Every structure is written in C-alpha cells, then in structure tokens.
Amino acid sequence: MNIVCLIEQTGGLERGSAREALGLARRLADAAGGQVTGLVLGSLRDPATLGAWGADRVVELPALDGPGSSDAWSAGLADALDPLAPDLILLSASATGRELGPRLAARLGTGLVAECTELAWQDGQWLATRPIFAGKVLVTAPVNTKPALVSLRAKVFAVQEGGPAARVEQASLAGREMKAVVEEILAAAGGKLDLSEADIIVSGGRGVGGPEGFAPLEELAAKLGAAVGASRAAVDAGWRPHSQQVGQTGRVVNPTLYIACGISGAIQHLAGMKNSRYIVAINKDPEAPIFKLADYGIVGDLFEVVPALSRALS
Which of 22, 42, 213, 228 has the most CB atoms at less than 10 Å from its CB? Predict the structure, then answer.
C-alpha cells in the first residue's frame, strides 16, 4: 500500500499540519502494510528529517517553490503523483488544501473526502469520519474511489516522532500553459501566529466593544504565546481582519486551549472551535450559550478578568 502526504512548507520548513498527516499515514501504513511518501510542495531545508515524523521517502518538487497558482500546482501534483501510484493521498484542510483538493480530485478522476477527523483501514477499505451540519453530527462512510483523496482537519491527529531519516529524491515537472499565474505574494507584517497552527487562542467577540477592546486580549496572548482570534460579529464590525475569524464561515481551529472573551456562543462560532481540548469562557452574562460548551467559565467583566490573568502570568 502506498500512502502519499502532500507537505506544505513555509520558508523551507514543513507546517505542523504536515507532521500530523505524516503521523496518521505512518500509523495506517504500519497497520495495513505499506510505505509513506512525503510529496513536498517545493523544497525543504532538511527534507530527510521528515523521516522523524513518519515518512519513508521524501520527493521534493522544487518547481513549486515560490509563488504559484492552484491551477499550476494541481497540474504539477497530478503529474508527480502518477509514478507514485498512491492508494491514499492525504493533505491538510488548510487554505491551500481547500483550493488544491477539489482541483486535484478532478485531475485524478477521483473523489475528495474533506475535513476528516478520523481515518481507518478496515475490511479492505478506507473508512473516513467527518463532521456535518456545522459539527452537530459525525458521519463515517467508506471511501469507494481510488486513489482515496482525504483532507485532514488540523490539530486533530497526533504527531509521531522518532523515525529514521527518510530517503530524499527530487522530481522535475513539465512546463504547462496556465490560465493565471501568481507573480507575488504580499504577506502581512508582524509575524503573527497562524490560527490553524496555534496551540492556544484568545478570541474576542461583540463584548469587547470595539477595536480598542482587543488590547487586553493581545497582552494576554503575548504572555501565553497565543494567537488572537475573533467572532464573526467582531470581524463584520471591522474590528479585526477576516483572517482572524473563527467559526463556520471563518477558520475551524482545534487548539489545546481556547479562551473566549465576550463571545456569547452563536452556533456558527461554536462550529469553528468546539473541538478545542479545553475551553475557557469569560462573559458577563451567566446565561450565555458559550458556558454550556466551556470546560471553565468565568462570569465577569472581561476588562477586569483578562488584565488580572495577564498580571497573574507576569
């Protein structure tokens, strides 16, 4: 059995979600018998170290380094996957994965199971579990297409460590005439943590009162080494950028700790963070729906509670 993981990288370093995919692939390969190949979207500083996370072999695609388009990448990946003859292809349900997944499925003539939270090999077939209806229901169904193409929700699957160095190869890609080409990517300044990669998130909602109300949340996040998120209400009001929105129409996150400040708990927001390992809610309204989901609740003014937490961490 051949399992291929698509490895996203930034600046030559693999993303945390790629390590999670490799860990799952390693466990599946060990159970079903097979090998794991990491197919890199570009090149890495030290590709052999992917063996520590579960890869037997690493294939780099230097042609995909730098700015690219999903059209170009899906075409190149389809060509690169052909000689690998994969039975299963894993990719992250990231912004890149959401763009690439459907296009790659169309080029390979297969189906795509998106946002999976569990995957198993049972009785000669893949069984994929994913949330539906805004996370209210989990459905498990067989994957009947080959190769099986599955995107994985971040911060769900355990990382595996300690494997030997992987074999490294490089593959060249034939040039293609593309409809559109990305010439430059302008990254936002500041080096903020990516919500999907963050282990701790401090989020604010309508209760912060305005853009200036996020200042104490920023201070607490800085002390915790956390990312800052926001509810749709805060984003729609123009208080925070859409890239920080957590919820059904924003980012779906799964951190170890999620601190909700001034967030009432609308179902659309809960769908984006309900799988966090620990949830702390801070709200003046003791009847706020967020308290039904929270592991720990603090009924109080966030402008008193959050600074007190920051002082306690000093």
Answer: 22
